[in-house]
Amino acid sequence: MYFLERTRAPAFAETGDPGFFESPGVALHIDFYTDFAYHSIMANGRVLVIDDEASIRELLCDFLSSEAIACSNVATLAQALELLKDNSFNLVLLDRNLDAIRGEQIIPRIRRIHPGIPVVIMTGDHQFNENSLKHVAADGILHKPFKFDEFMQLVGKFVESE
Q: What is the reported pTM?
């Protein structure tokens, strides 16, 4: 069973829906259920989360860690590029609105360091869709708020079990 430990994400407030939490400008829906299929899909792997909201970074890393996926998280482009120089990852989860720069502007810099690394854009802008991905060279899109099962299914496409 998956659960959110409220003490790990104090910026989130319960909204009445037992699986829906939000913080200023961010909302996240979490499905609570037992599903061992994720355990067979996910084993090992490394994911880099780049998001300027600490609560989102920590929550996503908690989810990934619960599935035996190593997770590093950073708040800025400079931190991300430094971490990418010294480490390898199976996937980058990139906030589209990172500080004053668009996530899609960062992708070429990430790919110069790690050619071919999958990059998934996370955004609350529902006008940004699959057609938009073709123009920004991203490998996937995750719309906020997203459900836990959608998140894990998308990660599973890029982080395969060994």
A: 0.71
